[in-house]
Amino acid sequence: MYPAEIVMPMKEQLTSNGFEDLTTAEQVEAAIAKPGTTLVMVNSVCGCAAGAARPGVVRSLDNDKVPTNLTTVFAGFDKEAVDRAREFFAPFPPSSPAVALFKDGELVHMLERHHIEGHSADAIAENLKQAYNEFA
């Protein structure tokens, strides 16, 4: 488990932009069950989370269509929440960072680490905007 003093500023990068920080399995279940579209970002301490995933997810919100619900779980910190979220990501294997989009509880779009690592924040944002335009 990562220490809170390392994780909290990384969480804040998303929560200050309207993301709900999910820390329990029950919170994950409730969020995904909400009607509309729900974005779940698996946050991480890795460099690709800092350089591409978090900034890309935030930039993706500069779009006409955006998810109804914005949520995040933190790998290596909120174990229960991350484990439960990953169950909803099946058949995709565990990955962090990762970004999943659900529509009325059904997984409709997934970005795994290999879609994030080596890509720019702008590329991540554009990928997500296309998903929002299709599903939101």
Automatic annotation (TrEMBL):
NCBIfam families: YphP_YqiW. Belongs to the bacilliredoxin family. This is BrxA/BrxB family bacilliredoxin. It comes from Faecalibacter rhinopitheci.
